[in-house]
Amino acid sequence: MTGVMLAGLVAVPPPAYAAPGEELHAVRTVTGPDGVEHIHHDRTYQGLPVLGGDVITHGDRAPESRTLSPLTALSTTPQVSGPAAVAIAAKSFPYEPSGSPRLVIEGIGDTAAARVPAPAWDVLVTGTRPDGLPTALHVLVDAATGVVRTTYDDVQADTGHGFHSGDVPLTTTTSGTSTLRILKDPTRGTFGTYDADTRRYFTDADGDWANGKPSNPQTDGVDVQWGAAVTYDFYKQTFGYTLVENSDFSDGPSTLNAGVHEGDKLSNAYWSAQCHCMRFGDGNGVTTNPYTSLDVVAHEATHSVIARTAKLFYTGESGGLNEATADIAGNLVEFFAANPNDTPDYLVGEKVWKAAPLRYMDRPSRDGASPDCWSPTVGSLDVHRSSGVGNHAFFLLANGSGPSAWGDSPTCDGATVTGVGRDTAARLWFHALTTQWTSSTDYAGARAGMLAAASELYGQCGAEYRAVQAAWSAVAVTGADQPCP
Ligand SMILES: [Zn+2]
Questions:
Q1: Residue 300 a catalytic site member
Q2: Which residue, among 404, 406, 409, 414, has the nearest Cα to 388 in the 3D structure?
């Protein structure tokens, strides 16, 4: 009896296959709305996996779904040894062999002519591709001739078409033997983007995601997934920091997850310490676009970084410092990404509100509400306004005062500030965030902590230390630090 028993049901026996030793093995079942069991089977031949040989039966309906015909008799004795196949694969691609080769029947060639099944060694090689993406490439070496028959990659380098980001690469996940892509990135934790309404990760049949239009539900997912991947890479490569969060799903620890289509035409985005997730609204389509631009995604992801480091309370001056940190990182990630569809700047949310940027770093008062300079009442402002003091200080530290390529930045003390450059400013800010600032640090404490960071990284009263003093003094945040000679 070759019928397959699955939980609670007796399946129709799989069709008889031609060659002796050819077998089908049920692996999963999808039940249609009319009760028909669609049963996926993997195929083996004399115990060897038949790549491309899977078959789906549909209850008692004929025909079954398959690509490969029943096999004709094959010799499975390899003429090429496993180690020889590994050597051939290693010579053919600039990657390192990984693990042991396995003997298979290969029937997945790119053309019908190439899909004539034959024994092959499946050799895994791994490394980094010229475009910077990781690769885990399966090289199928003909077990009779030693010719490379075909390859396939476990890292699915898909393409997404975002609304803000344009055409961008995505690294996605497949499940088992299915070719269906899931919008989860196995190379960056398991970061994934889902629909906030259905709480299901986005999926795609062919790896060509969305169409750049907000009307396509995947489009916002592409912008967020790509933005989060870039943010992950920025933190890893710039600071050696891994964006890790507890998932709001039950699939265990993972990187931060994201939901899109949050609310009803919501013109906002947020990170929540409750769900350890970030959520993005669609915008209203009239005055606002989807809140899924790169600086917004990096801003929200940075709230999770703050929650794992300084834990700045989201109120008063520490709340302003928290928001400024998120705004700064949002723009640093723009520079890191250098996407021609979203060119870097020191503007915050310039692509989400159609009329103007949400915030400005060179002169925060350009938004009509944020302060350029500290005052004793700053802490009573909304945190998205009191952030102006921190944003302004960072801008001055990076770029200096007066006109520059990125704006025209005034000083509150009339002094001239010489910038230390974006990379050094970022290093100082992140070191203070992760080693000096505590949950209730105010702006005076931010200055003191950043000076301690400057002393540690560059020496007391070095050029960087003096620049930190000058930048904070220029936004009217003074301190008890000794003046340098
Ligand atoms: Zn925020």
A1: yes
A2: 409
Q: Which of 138, 164, 384, 392 is catalytic?
A: 384
**What's the CA-to-centroid distance between 323 and ligand 1, angstroms?**
5
Burial of 355 (0-12, 13-18, 19+ CB in 10 A): exposed
Ligand 1 centroid to residue 198 C-alpha, Å:
25
In a domain, 482, yes or no: no
- 184: which residues sit within 8 A by CB, 6+ positions away? 172, 173, 190, 191, 192, 201
Q: Where are the beta strands (DSSP E) in 253-345?
A: 253-254, 257-262, 269-272, 277-281
In terms of residue numbers, what domain contains 109?
82-154
Question: Taking all residues of the chain, what is their mean pLDDT, rounded to a whole number?
Answer: 88
For residue 73, tell me if it sits in a domain.
no
pLDDT for residue 343 is more than 90? yes
Neighbours of 82 (CB within 10 A): 16
> What is d(CA 134, CA 153) in angstroms, rounded to the nearest whole number?
10
Compute the distance between CA of residue 425 and CA of residue 68 in angstroms, rounded to an integer.
Answer: 59
Distance 300 CA to ligand 1 centre (A): 6
Report the DSSP beta bridge partners of residue 10: 5
Q: How far is the CA of 391 from the centre of ligand 1 (A)?
A: 13
> Are residue 145 and residue 242 in the same domain, yes or no?
no
Q: What whole-number distance in Å separates Cα of residue 244 and Cα of residue 254?
A: 6
Greater confidence (438 vs 38) lies with 438
Q: Give the distance (Å) from ligand 1 centre to CA of residue 387.
A: 10
Reported confidence tier of residue 156, pLDDT bands at 50, 70, 90? low
DSSP bridge partners of 402: 409
Q: What is the DSSP string of 64-82?
A: EEESSPPPPP-----SS-H
pLDDT of residue 332: 98
Single pTM value for the model = 0.75
Which residue among 262, 300, 323, 464 is the active-site one? 300
Q: What is the 3-state secondary structure (H, E, C) of 436-463?
A: CCCCCCCHHHHHHHHHHHHHHHHCCCCH
Same-domain pairing of 308 and 341: yes
How far from 392 is each of 3, 230, 360, 466, CA to CA, in Å? 72, 25, 8, 17
Angle at 227 between CA 224 and CA 230, to 5 degrees: 150
Give yes or no: 384 in active site: yes
Task: Classify the phi-psi angles of 266: left when phi > 0, otherwise alpha if psi is within -120 to 50, otherwise beta.
Answer: beta
How far apart are the C-alpha atoms of 236 and 191, rounded to whole Å?
A: 14
Q: How many domains does the chain have?
A: 3
Task: Judge if 110 and 238 occupy the same domain.
Answer: no
Q: 352 alpha carbon to ligand 1 midpoint, in Å? A: 14
